[in-house]
Each structure stands twice: as C-alpha cells, then as structure tokens.
What we know:
Blueprint: E1 4-8, H1 15-23, E2 40-49, H2 52-55, E3 66-67, E4 70-79, E5 106-112, H3 133-151, H4 154-164, H5 168-175, H6 183-192, H7 204-218, E6 221-226, H8 233-241, E7 245-246, H9 249-260, E8 264-265, E9 274-275, H10 283-299, H11 304-315, E10 318-324, E11 342-345, H12 350-357, H13 359-363, E12 365-370, E13 376-377, E14 388-393
Helix pairs in contact: 1-9, 3-7, 5-6, 6-7
The structure holds guanosine-5'-triphosphate and magnesium ion (MG).
The site of guanosine-5'-triphosphate has 24 residues, from helix 1 and helix 9.
Amino acid sequence: MSLLIGIIGKPNVGKSTFFSALTENAVEIGDYPFTTIESNKGVTYIRAKCPETDLGKKCKPNFGKCANGTRLVPVELIDVAGLVPGAHEGKGLGNKFLDDLRRADGFIQVIDSTGSLDQNGNSVGRGKFDPLDDAEFVHREIVLWLANIISDGLIRNIRKLESEGGKIENIIYEKVSGLGIDPKDISAAVKSAAIPSNLKEWDEGVSVRLAEEIIRTSKPGIIVATKGDKIDQVEASKLKERGAQVVSGDFELVLRKASKAGLISYFPGDVSFSVIDLPKLNQAQRDALKRVEDFMSHNGGTRTQEAVEYLVYKVLGMIVVYPVEDENHWTDKNGNILPDAILLRQGSTAIDLAYKVHSDLGDRFIRAVNGRTKRILGRDHVLEDGDVIKIVAAR
Ligand SMILES: Nc1nc2c(ncn2[C@@H]2O[C@H](COP(=O)(O)OP(=O)(O)OP(=O)(O)O)[C@@H](O)[C@H]2O)c(=O)[nH]1
Ligand SMILES: [Mg+2]
C-alpha cells in the first residue's frame, strides 16, 4: 500500500484542479460549490534521487519513472467534496464522504489565496474573507469527524471494558482500526489527551481531545493556498509568513497539458519550462504560457509539486529505500535494476522494510544487506534515505 494523501477544504477553493494537475486525471472542475460529489482518486509522483547514478546504469522502475537520476515515486491522492462548517451535523454534503479518507496518512488542506469565497464556497468578492480562516473550521470538522468515530458506541464498550478490566487503548485502537494509525501513537494520544481516570466521566469533549491528538500526531497536514496566480507578491508573502504554501494548481494543469501535447518541455517541480516549437502555438496559447512564465519566475515555479513533497518529506518525515534481490547488481531476480522505490517513515528498520515489501518476507526475515557497503544488517538496523537493501529470508 502506498502513501495516501487526502485533499480537503471548503467548496470551490481549487481542490480538484490541484488534484488533476498532480495526477493528470481529468476530473470535473467548476466555478461553483460542490462540483465534486464522489471522491476522485489518483496517483502522483514525488521526486527522489535515484541510486542509478551511483551504479552508473539505468534503472527499470516497476512503478513511476526515472529521468536523469530523478526517480518518481508514486503517492496516492484523494480529492473529496467540499467541507462546510457544521458538516459533522449534516450541513452541506455532511461528512460521510470523509470516510473515504480513513486510510489517509496526511492531509493537504487547500485554501483560496484570493479570499473571495464565503464558508460555503460562494463567490462574495475579492478579499472579503481571510483565506486562512477556513483552515480553522476545516481542521475542526476533521477532528469532529474522527471524534464521532471514536465516540460511536463507546459508552457501551467502556462499561464492558470496566467489567472485564481491559485497557482503554485497546478499545480506542479497535474503534479507529482501518485508519492506519500506529498503536504506539494511540497510546501516546491517550496519555496526552488527559482521559478521565473514571471512565464514566467520558463525554464528547474527551473524544474531541483525543481526536485532536491523533490527527496532530498520526495524520498531520499542510495548508496550500492555491490560485496564487491571482494575488500579488505582497499578499503571497503574507500567506507564506503565516505558514501556507502558495501555489497555482491551474497553472500546473496548463503546464502538464502543454507538456503532454508536446508543446513545451517541463518536468514537474521545475522552476521554468521551455517552448518546443514556438510557431506551433496560437496567440492564445502564447499569452497563456506567458502568464504562467511570469508567475513561475517570481513564485519559484507553480510550487504544486513541491507542496506534496514538502508534506511527504518534511512533515510526514518519509525516506525512500530501494529493495533489491541481488545486492551486487541492485536488481530483482529478473535482472531489472532498482525496480522498486519504497517510502518509509524516518526511523524505520530493516524488518519494517521487509514487511512493507511483503508480509511473508517479514515473517521469514533472516538478515539484510546494504547494497553499497555489503554490510550485514540486523532486523533493528535503522535505514537511511537512499539505501539499497537486500533482504535475506528463510525459504
Ligand atoms: N486562477 C486560478 N483558478 C483556479 C485555480 N485552481 C482552481 N481554480 C478555479 O477555481 C474554481 C474551482 O475549482 P475546483 O478545482 O473545481 O474547486 P474544488 O475545491 O474542487 O470545488 P468543489 O469540488 O466544488 O468543492 C474553478 O473555476 C477553477 O478553474 C488556480 O490555481 N488558479
Ligand atoms: Mg472538486
């Protein structure tokens, strides 16, 4: 299972445009709230330095691509319907659709840089809203969604638990199973959320505190201010100072389409692009690309690609590791060079990698070998970003 990132935010802010640019999936985009009803799922690729450059031979990825030593590692994205205040009570489309995000490892919360939309996503005129205002209520709706999952049937369970003398962690863990949360994180959240010692005193507030804690530690997120092409540099600097990533999903979409059509040469994340065949472009296309170019030059690219990479590498703290079957040639058993690139949490060990590749490989783990140094690694050896690792397993 690869990493899954949920794209959330109020209606009409530009979630689907951002999603479509990154996944190159054609989805419905519209200048009105609730364009998206059913979730969109797709795959995007984040950049990593490929060990092929150390090997001096071209790799052959099973998934994704590699260009000039830059490996593209797949990450799943899911784009859901817009959230409005009170969604947990059924406002707007409610929050049932958030269940599609149960397995998400992190969130990208999209906000509208221009501050033109009210909380329901209706256009009310430029600058009428502080763009970061939605960040608070959207976060709160996510917390309340999780709090509901925790509270559901909890009191009954607590009575049962008390009579059996069990542990609260276990009940919570059961409730949130399928949310991809590490049991260690649940124990930590239970400790820091100040759970009453007398469980009969459990109320909604306790579930909310616990949900806050779980989201903070297990499903962290970033704020992406899109439509960055519509604001000036002073406004952009202010949003950046307040912690948002300023991007233009729309311009990234233009670049991806133009690149696919063979009109420009552009590698996602580049700070610029080049036109392949100028005479082939009509005036409208030239004007559009000129606007994109101007924006990119002062924003350092559209920064759409970087936003995802920032979440994955900096906030979720992931590293990329390359499992191989032949530690000398860095191939699988069919001779494919560096076939897989796997995202792991920082601090992951050789045994974690084995289980990630295949649960069977984890169960039969004997030792690992570092493909660079040929050193033998035990199960608890902590892996590093860019490691090439062979797992030796019992037959
Ligand atoms: N200029 C500009 N317009 C954008 C950008 N991103 C989205 N838009 C426009 O904003 C409107 C809403 O975009 P969507 O991507 O459908 O927004 P959404 O958040 O998915 O909306 P819902 O599904 O209704 O919640 C559309 O008219 C888009 O063309 C951007 O980066 N720049
Ligand atoms: Mg949408």
